[in-house]
User: What shape does this take?
Amino acid sequence: MNAKKETGNYRWMVVVLLFFATTINYIDRQVIGLLKPELERVFNWTEKDYSRIVMAFSAAYAVGLVFMGRIVDIIGSRRGYTVSIIFWSIAAILHSFVQSTGGFIWVRALLGLGESGNFPAAIKAVAEWFPKKERALATGLFNSGASVGAVLAPIFVPLILGAWGWKEAFVITGALGFVWLFFWLRYYQLPSAKKNLSAEEFRHIHSDEESATEEVAVKIPWQKLLGFRATWAFIVGKFFTDPIWWFFLFWLPSYFSSAFDMDLTKPSLELGAVYAATTLGSIGGGYLSLFLVKKGMILTRARRTSLLIAAILVLPVITVQYAANSWQVVGMIALAAAAHNAWSANIFAFASDLFPRSALSSVIGIGGMAGSVGGILFPMLVGALLDHYKLIGNLMGGYNILFVICSLSYLFAWVLILLLTQNRKKQAVLAR
Assistant: This one.
């Protein structure tokens, strides 16, 4: 407590802003999953129709990440975030005007383009406001907004659906971004431009070996980034794990509806419990690597150890098929989802350790694009499996196969990350 008073704590206010933006981001993207049974009835969707809609979001998100990452590096986190949230909030509201399945494909693509700016801008803001040792915790804290958004959506979207209808659910949730924008423009600036920031906190923010001036001077062409093993470590870390989180977001409501006859027009305690657990995973995972560093572990090893622990905690989800009741399933999926957020906090912080601030959003965009490509391919498998097993009268068989894939993806990704980051000298070249 004393250290915080001495250095100041405005940087934690920045985390609060990033937290609420990420919360809104995940509310907006999850609405369609919660409305899926109703929209299936209205538009006569098959599982493949829904998969195409999810893929449209994923494809646009992938393309958007590359461009938004570079744009944020050019125009800065403040203006980049502003452009992103205006774009995605308008796209979210446009869902209410759609009259066909094709229309949903288009507006989901627009939403994906807009939402792609959230993480490049947020990770860059964390790098601007925090020294390296605190970045995983700061990332875990703001990334917990994904969990909170996933908790709030299953509570409020069904209430809006029951009271007014599916169109109003998109309008009300989409409008939240404009509320956040007022506070962002009012309170966010770079540390060097923040007039009431204490000198002690400014020095703390830049307490790493490289100064802010030195980092700004580092310019790495976009294409050159692909020549670094550290970039590929981040790419594989996202490619093999992001699709699993999106599966939990977009298909979990439908899974519980099919497996346990859950009424999605009412608030869901089961879904709320799953997504609430991810908040603990995000914050706990962020704190874990800080704890390991404080105990004397070098930063790279602390990140890799934290990632390994997260990967191991996902493994029990393979036993979902043997659960006797819905709350046993909730426990296993909640653990896996929490572990994903612990993984996410550390993989983002890992990238910020290895790259200068001037190139960080570009790297986040490239890795995010890889995760989105996985998010395009995985729904193809999900839709085909579920339609096939539904046709033969064994829908749960399809879900069981998917949970096996989910359980092993993180450990496979960790092995690849380990192979790509074993040589510390090759890792460090970008941070100099």
Notes: Residues 216 and 358 are 6 Å apart (CA to CA). The chain has 20 helices and no strands. Residues 1-5, 210-217, 425-432 have pLDDT under 50 and may be disordered.
